[in-house]
Structures are given as structure tokens and as C-alpha cells.
Amino acid sequence: MATLLTPRGRRSTATGSTRLIVPPAFSTRLGCDAVGVPARYGFRILSRLPAKGCVYADTDWWWWLVPAGSDLDLIWPMPACYAPGAEIPDRRPRLIHHPDGTSPYSPPIPLYLLTCQLTGIAPSWTAVRTPGDGVLSEHVHPTGPDRP
Predict the structure, then answer these.
(1) Does 41 score more than 60 pLDDT?
(2) Which letter, b or e, does each residue of 120-131 get, where b requires 16 or more Cβ atoms within 10 Å of its Cβ?
(3) Phi and psi at residue 57, in whole multiples of 5°?
(4) Cβ-Cβ contacts under 8 Å for 41 (sequence gap 6 or more)
(5) What pTM does this model have?
């Protein structure tokens, strides 16, 4: 319990930001980004997520660790904030939720859908184009249109 209340979940930088530090017991092979929401949404999201990773908070914002690249093809709704590298404004966030499992990550899709629901914004992401589906998109499937 004492580790949940200490400010050891951060590393300050000269730019007024901090990088959230993952407790040493967890592997971050997928890299780390963070998704922040205003504190008024924090408890509602935390109580509704099916799985919960490391969550950090200060008086104004709550931050969830997600795998790097969890913003790929997603448009996170305002006022949510996506932080590549889990580098956030330095407001002295503390680790407030330690995961029960072996992963430091919260699942990004349920987190995204809950954030959209609570902010009243419809989910939006780029569709993947597949042969014959008629979907036009900025995203091109890695195999390309001419390849199997």
C-alpha cells in the first residue's frame, strides 16, 4: 500500500513534463504510452474497465498506461490527451492503481470506447481497406492492393 501513495511513479524532465515510470515488476516490451482524462471521469472509467493496468493521478488528471501505438487509427476524443512515451505534464502524478495481473497496460480499445461514451463523442477510427469492400481510407493495408 505504501508504494501506491509515493511519488515514485514519475521522472521529471527539464521541459516541465514527466515520464510515468512503470513499477519494476512489470514488463513493457510493447513500449508505453499514456492516455489522460480529466479527473472528473477517472473513477467512472476505472470502475468500468474490464482490465486495469497502472493508473496514475494528480488533482486534475488521471493517466492510464497503454501499449505504444495505441493511437494508431484512433481519434481520441477531447478532452482526453494521448501521451506518446508516457510523457505527461509534470503535476506530480502518483500511482493510484497497481494491476492485479502481470501487465502494466490497460486495454486501449475498452478505454477508448469508455472515454467516447463519457464525453458524448461517437467513436471514430480509420477503416482498413480490403479488396471488394468499397471502403476508401487513408490507411492502406500493408500487403498493398496488388498483393495477396
Answers:
(1) yes
(2) eeeeeeeeeeee
(3) -150, 155
(4) 62, 115, 118, 119
(5) 0.75
